[in-house]
């Protein structure tokens, strides 16, 4: 909401210092987003009048004007504006003037003709983006008067970022009411007289949707000159509020909205058929909006209609078919109250957001309708003429919002705020806010005013007292208990760190329900009996999850159904196992992967993710649990996993989770596209990380030996590694399997493993004889334990 300080000062006495006013409003909960001048700095610009205008002798598009600037001496000015003409009044920058952009006006010769000053467009003064011609001024503009003074441009525009509950401040009157309360000043609104009817012309109004629109005021005005110019003062107030002038009728309704907070609309009466009906749209009805965009209405949309068709989207935007134009002579003014719940989200439903919808969605004072229509009538008659008919005010009393009565305990105010505010101050604050309390006994009864939709509970009233008293005046107090900072154990890896690793590996975090479908749960964890909910949200959320896999599988199906081929998801959370009396809530991390290994790329062949790709991601995660921990992937069987691609994960000889491909039965049952790999790891493994300790680096050289052996295909790489480490002793620093081969030269049922061994001692350089002896010992152990042979 943009507020002109000058306009605000007509309603209430405001602090002279704009910065102080902005600080005051912000501390009262009306956050000031910015303060900017109403116009850029410029000087020596006066109201000028063209008293003569002739074509330039040497330039077809230029004119030579004689300008009266009030000094008693006419100035010759060369001007290229298309609207320059005798009798036009416009801003005139005298010689020596400085304009925005640090432009200094000097006497100059243009095409052989001297020019003493410059006639200005609004854009050259920073007042508009329009640069089509000179800025025309009204005929009564005083020639020679300083332009800044005449238009009150030494003004500040305060932009307030309002929270949704403070719709009462979306107007000059609302902000003035707040300033008056904060400074103890009286708010004086401009004269708002009742305009008597000059004719009997009226339209019938039928409130079909009474709950959505319990009050609708309308008035016919005939003989309006819709082509009349909008006066400069009104244009300026609209401009400073960020509203573009569009014509006298629309400008008046916008002005009233900014002034009082009541959105209005004007229809061309001659384009309406019969009376006004406020109703819900029929499914499939269409409406072309003022913006020219046609929309198809849904059945839950509130519309303003005539006897034939919808003519406006209620509380949002009017229709193009009944729009006011310069040829309009008969106007129907609308001023209504729409229930916030009826309009909430309707504008967004059609891709719209208007000043009217912004206000109606948050709540507009239902008592403003009549006041606004009288104000708009008075302005329209003054500026565009016409004969008004009577105001038709139709109300559905049973559907009108009823101001609530809230109980307030003065003792509770001080107890909650930690203050010693006197009851007299509380009473005065509430009275100035428009809700004088009934103060009988220890509990007061406070009736919220019609413009405050957010006053419903005692704490709302306490907040009002606190902000008017001043948040910065509330006493600071220390917490009653000391705030102990818990020490973080180096042995524990935070969930945040685990998430970072998964995200770095290309996974996205999912958050799924702890309630899952019983059938889905049974297909993924049939050995566990889930805990059933007594009152489930729906039939597919009937039991507590015994694993995080059901939620991830459901998320995978959701993504694949939306043509997402490559999916990588993980989740951290609790699984629930056991009965209600002895429920085991175990924190775990689970992940699922499906689709290609990489996104499509010209430099790499596309292939689907396999067990070893997924296992690498799991190993990267488990690296967080610390170095030198005994990590094993043991071939095992799980009812939900593929028999040939399934392993139990162990660390330090303790089972910590599972990894594998989902069983084909599961992928078929849940319509998964291709194989999917899952894992689930207990969080307890990340609470036992070995604390880092110093370890010296050997000063002696390391020796590498490569070894290729042939073993049966059923022998795991892990068993080979265990056998080598037991035979090599302490001299073995690292062991890497860098090749697996099956094919020519290797018998069927066997495989070749190639390994790199790094040997090193801390106290001396190993000799070739010692290395050779170690290698022979390893080969012998492999042959004895695993039946391995050296590959020739």
From TrEMBL:
Record protein name field: Phenylalanine--tRNA ligase beta subunit
InterPro entries from the UniProt entry: aa-tRNA-synth_II/BPL/LPL, B3/B4_tRNA-bd, DNA-bd_dom_put_sf, Fdx_antiC-bd, Fdx_antiC-bd_sf, NA-bd_OB-fold, Phe-tRNA-ligase_IIc_bsu, Phe-tRNA-ligase_IIc_bsu_bact
Subcellular localization(s) per the UniProt record: Cytoplasm
A cellular component annotation (GO) from this entry: phenylalanine-tRNA ligase complex
A Pfam family hit: tRNA_bind
Record-listed Mg(2+) binding positions: 454, 460, 463-464
CDD domains: PheRS_beta_core, tRNA_bind_bactPheRS
Organism name: Spiribacter salinus M19-40
TRNA-binding domain mapped to chain residues: 39-148
Oligomer and partners: Tetramer of two alpha and two beta subunits.
């Amino acid at each position: 909401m943009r507020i002109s300080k000058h306009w605000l000062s007509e309603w209430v006495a405001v602090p002279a210092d704009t910065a102080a006013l902005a600080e005051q409003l912000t501390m009262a909960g009306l956050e000031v987003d910015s303060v900017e001048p109403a116009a850029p700095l410029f000087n020596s610009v006066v109201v000028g009048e063209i008293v003569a205008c002739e074509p330039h002798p040497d330039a077809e598009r230029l004119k030579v004007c004689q300008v009266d600037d009030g000094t008693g001496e006419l100035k010759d000015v060369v001007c290229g504006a298309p609207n320059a003409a005798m009798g036009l009044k416009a801003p005139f920058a005298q010689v020596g003037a400085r304009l925005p952009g640090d432009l200094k006006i000097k006497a100059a010769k243009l095409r052989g003709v001297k020019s003493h000053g410059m006639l200005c467009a609004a854009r050259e003064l920073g007042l508009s983006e329009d640069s089509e011609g000179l800025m025309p001024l009204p005929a009564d503009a005083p020639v020679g008067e300083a332009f800044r003074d005449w238009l009150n441009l030494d003004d500040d525009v305060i932009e307030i970022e309002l929270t949704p509950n403070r719709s009462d401040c979306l107007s000059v009157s609302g902000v003035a009411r707040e300033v008056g309360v904060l400074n103890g000043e009286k708010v004086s609104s401009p004269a708002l007289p009742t305009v008597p009817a000059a004719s009997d012309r009226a339209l019938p109004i039928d409130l079909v949707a009474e709950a959505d629109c319990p009050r609708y005021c309308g008035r016919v005005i005939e003989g309006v000159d819709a082509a009349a110019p909008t006066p400069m003062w009104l244009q300026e107030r609209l401009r400073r509020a960020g509203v573009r002038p569009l014509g006298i009728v629309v400008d008046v309704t916008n002005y009233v909205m900014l002034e009082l907070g009541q959105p209005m609309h004007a229809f061309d009466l001659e384009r309406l058929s019969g009376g006004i009906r406020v109703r819900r749209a029929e499914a499939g009805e269409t409406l072309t909006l003022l913006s020219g965009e046609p929309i198809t209405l849904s059945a839950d949309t509130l519309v303003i209609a005539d006897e034939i068709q919808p003519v406006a989207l209620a509380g949002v935007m009017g229709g193009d078919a009944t729009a006011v134009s310069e040829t309009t002579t008969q106007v129907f003014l609308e001023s209504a109250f729409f229930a916030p719940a009826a309009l909430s989200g309707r504008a967004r439903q059609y891709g719209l957001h208007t000043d009217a919808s912004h206000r109606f969605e948050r709540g507009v004072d239902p008592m403003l309708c009549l006041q606004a229509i009288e104000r708009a009538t008075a302005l329209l008659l003054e500026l565009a003429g016409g004969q008004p008919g009577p105001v038709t005010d139709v109300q559905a009393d049973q559907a009108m919002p009823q101001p609530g009565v809230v109980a307030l305990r003065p003792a509770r105010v001080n107890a909650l705020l930690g203050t010693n505010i006197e009851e007299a101050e509380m009473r005065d604050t509430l009275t100035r806010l428009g809700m004088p309390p009934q103060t009988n006994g220890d509990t007061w009864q406070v009736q919220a005013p019609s413009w405050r939709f957010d006053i419903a509970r005692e704490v709302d009233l306490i907040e009002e007292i606190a902000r008017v008293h001043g948040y910065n005046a509330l006493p600071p107090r220390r917490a009653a208990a000391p705030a102990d900072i818990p020490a973080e154990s180096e042995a524990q890896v935070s969930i945040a760190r685990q998430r970072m690793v998964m995200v770095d590996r290309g996974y996205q975090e999912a958050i799924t329900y702890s309630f899952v479908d019983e059938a889905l749960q049974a297909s993924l964890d049939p050995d566990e009996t889930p805990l059933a909910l007594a009152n489930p949200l729906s039939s597919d959320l009937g039991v507590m999850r015994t694993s995080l896999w059901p939620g991830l599988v459901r998320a995978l199906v959701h993504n694949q159904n939306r043509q997402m081929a490559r999916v990588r998801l993980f989740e951290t959370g609790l699984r629930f196992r056991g009965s209600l009396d002895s429920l085991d809530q175990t924190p775990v991390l689970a992940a699922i992967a499906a689709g290609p290994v990489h996104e499509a790329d010209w430099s790499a062949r596309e292939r689907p993710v396999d067990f070893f790709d997924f296992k690498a991601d799991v190993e990267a995660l488990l690296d967080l649990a610390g170095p030198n921990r005994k990590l094993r992937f043991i071939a095992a069987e799980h009812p939900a996993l593929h028999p040939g691609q399934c392993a139990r994960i162990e660390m330090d000889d303790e089972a910590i989770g599972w990894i594998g491909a989902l069983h084909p039965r599961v992928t078929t049952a849940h319509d998964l596209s291709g194989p999917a790999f899952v894992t689930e790891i207990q969080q307890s493994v990340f609470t036992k990380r070995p604390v880092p300790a110093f370890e010296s680096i050997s000063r002696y050289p390391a020796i590498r030996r490569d070894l290729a052996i042939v073993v049966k295909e059923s022998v795991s790489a892990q068993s080979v590694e265990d056998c080598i480490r037991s035979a090599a002793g302490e001299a073995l620093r690292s062991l890497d399997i860098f090749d697996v081969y099956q094919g020519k030269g290797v018998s069927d049922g066997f495989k070749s493993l190639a390994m790199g061994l790094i040997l090193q001692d801390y106290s001396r350089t190993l000799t070739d004889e010692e290395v050779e002896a170690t290698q022979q010992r390893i080969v012998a152990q492999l042959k004895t334990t695993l039946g391995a042979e050296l590959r020739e």
